[in-house]
Design brief:
18% strand; 268 residues; single chain
Length: 268
Amino acid sequence: MPKFFTLGKRITSIPDLLKHVQDFVGKSPIEDVYLRGQANYIWGLQPAIGRKLSYFGLTTHGYDRKLEGRLLHQFRRYARAFPGGNVDEREILLLAAHHGVPVRLLDWTSNPLVALYFACVDSDDRNRRESGAIWMILRKTHRRREDYYDIYRRNATEILRLKGVKIIYAPYVSPRIMAQSGHFTTQDNPAKNLENYRPPRNPKNAKTFDIMKIEKWEVPAGKKLHFISELQRCGINERALFPDLDGIARSIVRTEVLRSQAGGKNRR
């Protein structure tokens, strides 16, 4: 039986990344692979709600189901005042995740270049100096259509009550989800890293697990700035991935800083 989780090699170029994706998929349909970029290689696949949350030296103690419920309840109350915030209760979890509320979901993308962007860009200078990671998951093929999770299926199970690990095909409740080709995974134990799960041995539980295998690739720290410049030429930047004024502002600043540095090198 092949390993569920394996470590890959280094990503040295964009063509190199695309080849790795194709090799990872093998004979499966290319749309069955999802990717996630993380700015620090040592981070595991742990949902934000499973981590300790910090503020001014105060921290939580890790995953707390009651805290998760309170966060979603408050976000649901206040989000209704904003455009796009008046969504179905099953959709609110996806909207909350995409706007930074700690929940049990992990963001994934079907676009390898988007994953590379998030493996390179981070607001913390310490992570910019560390190697990043690109994670890839391959979707498992279920025998029955009903075994795939559909948020719009009549009587669909509430996401917080799903067992095992499921892939959520996100409705476009936010422009960011569409721009980032976004999808999500959800897991029944947010305190456990996704890569530490294993497919259930009992065939009766097969429908609770949507992932066939996971692989992790390194994005070298020394290549990050080069990749950011290349992605800029491919139209992958804050302006494209965060289609709002914040994204436009961050994109303008980064573009001008890169241009200034390039100009300084040319003058020297």
